[in-house]
Design a protein that fits this description.
This protein is mainly alpha-helical. Helix content is 73%, strand content 1%. The chain has 22 helices and 2 strands.
Length: 494
């Protein structure tokens, strides 16, 4: 079965689908505001006439390459191509400003490849088992996961924990705008139809990072990075990844686990992995200043999510993300039904898809490494040319999602706000994660309350929920414990 599925994946037609999907995916991912959901949505119709293996290999390549592609503009322009690349901006752009864009792209490419491979292996080896295990996670666990994510990000703002908590709260408040996910009640809409759907995530991200960065560059002469005759450091970046195996393994496994849990997805994974890595690092103060681990962690995690999110989709018919839902649609269009039998049907379909996903990772790896030195040259473009380019991408990316000018207005407001918030040391990561997790937290808190008949005991009597509470408590207590231990050690030395 393994050899026959490998031969099927290597069929000339499937390799052509793989290459086409990889190129399209990188282009879609690098364009701010588009991303994998947009790419899969517009390209899904192209798969109707394809054979099932070719269709799923093509979509896998688009998916994997677009997630990777989001890191290109995140590193070069501080403008995440996809919401799942926001955390990559923090250290990736810092390296670009130092003239090490090639190195940063090398790190991103290799980390994305390894994370993607881990996700595929999780799908292949643990699909049936983990699809069943994901059912053990209920509303109380989802709520505590959301709280844990917000707490960890706030704590990661070393020296700015209060500001981190404020920004997390602001993100939560913004997520509550529109109709309630539980009751359907209108909240903070101020009589406008536009706000009934809530404040859109993509225009917010584009404004907070892309437009805010354009405003910064507009006040600076020259280019992002010093002019060089050639761009180098791509292979150095690849070696940086291989020199940090613990970061790679920890972030990839974390991304795979997050991918399996429906509802979290890439957006949360890249933040959580970044925060976990920062909190465990001895050189945490260098994060945000070009620390290579600050690129490795989010890129390993978000690419591991891509395949892992398909486990509950293929195994249970429960998509773990919007992209997984589109994959599920592709299966059904081809006349296939998700479920345990999908993994164990005895045909070569599932192994062929796994091989195709592995080749998709290898495809964007080759394309990324070959193109990195050319991508990096954008950091040497004068700001006078780059700023109008970023502004154009920001407007097009905000408008393209739904075709509404109000999304462009939201982007502009978010950009101005982001510029001044960054200037005053307020961590935007906390705001973004609050926005991501707000509806998830609200929905699952209300569900947990209904299940427990309004008793908070449900959060303490369920094992996973209780473990998460203990982790949150320990995370807040650990800085003080560490401080006291350091004092005690110093006194002993004296």
């Amino acid at each position: 079965m393994i050899l026959s599925s490998l031969a099927a994946a290597l069929a000339p037609a499937n390799l052509l689908y793989l290459l086409a999907g990889s190129v399209l995916g990188i282009l879609i991912g690098a364009a701010p505001g588009l991303g994998p959901v947009f790419g899969l949505a517009i390209l899904l119709s192209m798969t109707f006439s394809m054979p099932v293996e070719g269709a799923l290999i093509f979509l896998s390549a688009v998916y994997a390459a677009s997630v990777y592609g989001g890191s290109i503009t995140a590193i070069l322009l501080n403008t995440p191509g996809t919401p799942g690349s926001v955390a990559t901006c923090f250290d990736g752009f810092a390296l670009s400003k130092r003239g090490e864009a090639g190195r940063a792209l090398g790190i991103s490419t290799m980390a994305s490849f390894i994370g993607g491979v881990v996700g595929v292996l999780a799908l292949a080896a643990l699909g049936p088992l983990l699809a069943q295990a994901s059912l053990l996670i209920g509303p109380s666990e989802f709520f505590m996961l959301a709280v844990a994510g917000l707490a960890l990000v706030a704590l990661a703002s070393k020296g700015n924990t209060v500001k981190g908590i404020i920004m997390s709260g602001l993100g939560l408040m913004i997520s509550f705008v529109g109709r309630s996910v539980v009751t359907g009640e209108r909240r903070f809409v101020f009589g406008t139809i536009y706000l009934e759907d809530g404040i859109q995530f993509v225009p917010m991200v584009i404004g907070l990072f892309a437009l805010a960065q354009a405003m910064v560059l507009a006040n600076q002469s020259g280019a992002i990075a010093p002019l060089k005759k050639s761009v180098s450091g791509v292979l150095t970046g690849c070696m940086d990844v291989l020199k940090n195996p613990i970061t790679v393994i920890r972030s990839s496994v974390l991304g795979a686990v997050i991918g399996i849990v429906p509802g979290l997805g890439i957006n949360a994974a890249n933040f959580i992995a970044y925060v976990v890595e920062k909190n465990s690092a001895k050189d945490a103060d260098t994060f945000g200043q070009g620390n290579v681990k600050g690129i490795i962690a989010p890129e390993c995690a978000n690419n591991a999510v891509t395949s892992a999110a398909l486990i509950p989709a293929f195994g249970l018919g429960v998509p773990g993300s919007s992209t997984a839902a589109l994959f599920l649609s592709a299966l059904m269009i081809q006349g296939l039904q998700p479920g345990y039998a999908f993994f164990t049907s005895g045909n070569d379909l599932f192994p062929t898809i796994v091989w195709g996903m592995l080749f998709a990772q290898a495809s964007f790896l080759v394309l990324g490494l070959l193109g990195a030195r050319y991508f990096a040259k954008i950091t040497q473009v004068p700001n006078s040319i780059l700023v109008p380019f970023i502004l154009s991408l920001s407007v097009v990316g905000s408008f393209a999602l739904r075709g509404q000018m109000m999304d462009v207005v939201v982007m502009i407001i978010a950009g101005v706000a982001g510029y001044y918030l960054q200037k005053n040391g307020y961590p935007l990561a906390c705001l973004i994660l609050g926005l991501i997790l707000g509806n998830l937290a609200e929905d699952n808190f209300c569900r947990a309350m209904r299940i427990s008949r309004n008793s908070l005991s449900i959060f303490f009597t369920r094992p996973v929920s209780l473990i998460l509470i203990l982790i949150i408590a320990f995370s807040f207590a650990w800085p003080q414990i560490k401080k006291h231990l350091s004092k005690a050690k110093a006194q002993k030395v004296q």
